[in-house]
Amino acid sequence: MIIVISKEHYDPLEPKIWLQLLENGLESIHIRKYDLTDMEVIQLINSIPMSFRNALVLHSHHHLANELGIKRLHFNRHLRDSVTKNGIKNYHLSCSVHDITEFNSLGSYWDYALLSPVYPSLSKPGYGVNKSVIPQLADRKNQQVSLVGLSGVNKDNIDNTLQMGFDAVALLGSIWNSENPLETFKACLRKILKHV
């Protein structure tokens, strides 16, 4: 599985690219727009047809999910601990973790967790340069929650990332720093399909 994480700040062209990616096989796009108002989020999500809403994951504005037909919510490390098995029903849940100990402690009500940094980040200069979660993978004990590698993942290292023990990958900088996000995604998808 490939996940694409949105740009952090509003870009009016971004929804068009989301739609292209979804039409070409993207299973999941994480919408991380913490600085938008409720109305701006509603307008953004409403630009995506209902047929693709099941692929959208909200990082913020969770209170709008039902109204927008979204059934997938993501929680960063600051909000993750407030979520309990019975706290949020009828939603698929994901979260962010930054070491394997955090990941191993997750309950089975999480569908997957984004673990970073795998490689030096392509979108946050300096992030992951002197630290990587790769050495920690041998200590993975939690097999109930899917482990998704994030940070610096691109078409050239996807094979290696999956072979190290990640169940899926998340793309951010490799997509949004690309001159052609769709072609970059397709190249990554071809690599993923070899592992299925």
Automatic annotation (TrEMBL):
Domain Thiamine phosphate synthase/TenI: 14-175
Keywords of the record: Thiamine biosynthesis
Pathways per UniProt: Cofactor biosynthesis; thiamine diphosphate biosynthesis
InterPro entries: Aldolase_TIM, ThiamineP_synth_sf, ThiamineP_synth_TenI
Transmembrane regions: none
PANTHER family in the record: THIAMINE-PHOSPHATE PYROPHOSPHORYLASE, THIAMINE-PHOSPHATE SYNTHASE
Protein name: Thiamine phosphate synthase
Organism: Sphingobacterium kyonggiense
